[in-house]
Design brief:
With 318 residues, the protein is α/β, with parallel strands linked by helices. It is built from seven helices and 16 strands. Helix content is 24%, strand content 26%. Strand 4 and strand 5 form a beta hairpin.
């Protein structure tokens, strides 16, 4: 915790759930604000899968996700941030204000943590494409998931987008109009039902659509180099992106009644507070653009709002 310590029975000013870019940014702010806080890190940050991100300012040559997390954690701990491993399995409102979090600390150890505020920075998980004999293709780096982050480095190459429906076509159009005129949309055997207008978008951007399943793959180094369709057609691409969507880790917020949109992301106000008073959110769990710098911005806004709110009576937070 920070230098502003209190008795062990006193609730924290804030419990941060998640140790990704958002959670670690919040940790830095809270430590420098000298608040009593703790970060619970389940070690499942999606940022850890990023081979190289070029959209983080000051890193002209790019920086890997694991390196971002390492540097952020090291910086926050330099100011005394309390970051511990564990999983928050439940979150409840506490009589008199604030929250109580149930934490699985591993090795059979469980504990309850009280906090006046909670900042959820639990992130999301990619829906993995079902490719033959290649599980976890996104996590292994064989298939990329963010053309906003690294599409520039793939400019003018042969690019395939794996996706279904309007979302898959939307990403294929984004790639085609921004980075390459050689784009293919793969549905992996799913039927693609598009409106005439959507079909027109695909034709206008010369996007080839292949709905046949993929029956065989050939890998080369850290990428998938060739695919064979159910009809026996051989396909070769330089880069593959998955546009199958995300599973948002918003269960804790939803269980408390926080408003969310149809995709599952929570709705927050200008201070990143959810519709549950005292419960804040930052990063991928918040509706909006899914980018590291956005997650950091959410965390900075939320941490500053919580710091200011801590000077007010807890009862006002109910």
């Amino acid at each position: 915790m920070s230098r502003r310590r209190a008795g062990t029975d006193e609730a924290l000013d804030c419990l941060v759930v998640g140790g990704g870019p958002a959670g670690l940014t919040a940790a830095l702010y809270f430590a420098r604000f000298r608040r009593r806080f703790r970060v619970i890190d389940a070690g499942a940050s999606r940022a850890a899968w990023i081979p190289t991100s070029h959209n983080v300012p000051f890193f002209a040559e790019g920086i890997s996700g694991p390196e971002i997390l390492r540097r952020q954690r090291e910086t926050a701990e330099r100011y005394g941030a309390d970051i511990v491993s564990g999983t928050v399995t439940g979150l409840q409102r506490r009589d008199g204000g604030g929250f109580v979090a149930s934490v699985d600390a591993g090795a059979g150890a469980n504990m309850d943590i009280g906090a006046r505020h909670v900042l959820l920075a639990t992130g999301a998980a990619d829906i993995e494409p079902q490719l033959p004999d290649v599980p976890d293709a996104v996590q292994r780096g064989l298939v990329r998931y963010c053309p906003i982050c690294d599409g520039y480095e793939s400019r003018d190459l042969k690019i395939a987008v794996i996706g279904h429906g309007s979302a898959g076509l939307g990403e294929a159009v984004f790639v085609a109009r921004t980075y390459s005129d050689n784009v293919t949309l793969l549905t992996l055997g799913s039927s693609l039902e598009l409106s005439p207008e959507e079909r027109g978008h695909a034709e206008r951007h010369r996007i080839r659509i292949i709905e046949a399943p993929i029956t065989a793959l050939e890998t080369a180094g850290n990428r998938i180099a060739a695919m064979t369709t159910g009809g026996g057609e051989a396909l070769q691409f330089d880069v593959l992106y998955s546009a199958l969507g995300l599973r948002y880790r918003t269960d804790l917020a939803v269980a408390l009644g926080a408003a969310h949109d149809p995709t599952g992301t929570v709705i927050v106000d200008d201070h990143c507070q959810t519709t549950v008073k005292g419960l804040y959110a930052a990063g991928a769990v918040v509706r909006g653009l899914d980018q590291i710098v956005i997650a950091m911005g959410h965390a900075a806004v939320a941490a500053t709002a919580i710091h200011n709110r801590c000077e007010l009576p807890t009862v006002d937070e109910n």
